[in-house]
């Protein structure tokens, strides 16, 4: 394992053991005990969820937090829920993922040139971390980004975008919008996308062509920068 992979593996171990936020610990473990009826036979992960992907990634995909019955169940970010279905299908079409599905942690999915992570590593109640919880997780994201040679950060939703802007000290912060691009001096390009949540995909606010265009642009930027 090279230096990037060694550091990312160390971060992942620390993330999984983290109990810094009592409210999140209580919630993620309660969800893992009570389960959703459709997954009653599953052994829920019920712990923080580290980033996942290629240690040589030039494209980082940054979301909000694990879904209660998605990554909090499966143990891999954006795995086992409909947001992940949309995300990994788009990444597969862009050549960044080995397959279009992400169902379980051992389903064979591999990423090429991409790393997927979240600003907050635990599933939060109502999908809404507090500012303190967000800030407690920020050092993990900072270390992930430092361990990667990043050319572009695809920010899924305004929460991911704001986390990236805080990390890279973007001031003033341009208004979030789908397809918005932000240059970071001496840093990567920030590329915004509506989050592939059911709220956006079911209503048509985010369509497959829109998401495909974001990832095609991300690949283009990574190649140009490289």
Distance between the termini: 22 Å
Indicate how many domains the architecture comprises.
1
Tell me the number of helical segments per DSSP (H or I, 4 or more residues long).
8
Average pLDDT number: 96
Secondary-structure element sequence? Answer: HHEEHHEHEHEEHH
Helix and strand content put the structural class at: alpha/beta
The CATH topology comes to Uracil-DNA Glycosylase, subunit E
CATH architecture: 3-Layer(aba) Sandwich
β-strand percent reads 5-15%
Query: What is the CATH class name?
Result: Alpha Beta
What's the gyration radius in Å?
16 Å
Helical coverage, percent range: 40-55%
User: Which outline best applies?
Assistant: globular
Q: Could you give the count of β-strands?
A: 6
């Amino acid at each position: 394992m090279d230096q990037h992979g060694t550091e990312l593996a160390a971060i992942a171990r620390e993330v999984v053991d983290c109990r810094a936020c009592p409210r999140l610990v209580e919630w993620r473990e309660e969800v893992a005990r009570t389960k959703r009826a459709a997954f009653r036979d599953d052994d829920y992960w019920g712990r923080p969820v580290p980033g996942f992907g290629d240690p040589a990634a030039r494209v980082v995909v940054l979301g909000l937090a694990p879904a209660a019955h998605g990554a909090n169940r499966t143990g891999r970010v954006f795995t086992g829920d409909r947001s992940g279905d949309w995300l990994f299908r788009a990444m597969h079409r862009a050549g960044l993922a080995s397959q279009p599905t992400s169902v379980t942690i051992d389903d064979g999915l591999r990423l090429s040139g991409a790393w997927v992570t979240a600003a907050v590593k635990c599933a939060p109640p109502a999908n809404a971390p507090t500012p303190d919880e967000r800030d407690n997780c920020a050092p993990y994201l900072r270390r992930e980004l430092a361990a990667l040679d990043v050319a572009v950060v695809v920010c899924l939703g305004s929460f991911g975008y704001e986390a990236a802007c805080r990390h890279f000290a973007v001031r003033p912060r341009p208004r979030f919008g789908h397809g918005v691009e932000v240059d970071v001096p001496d840093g990567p390009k920030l590329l915004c996308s509506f989050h592939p949540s059911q709220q956006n995909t079911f209503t048509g606010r985010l369509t497959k062509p829109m998401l495909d265009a974001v990832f095609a642009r991300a690949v283009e930027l990574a190649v140009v920068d490289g």
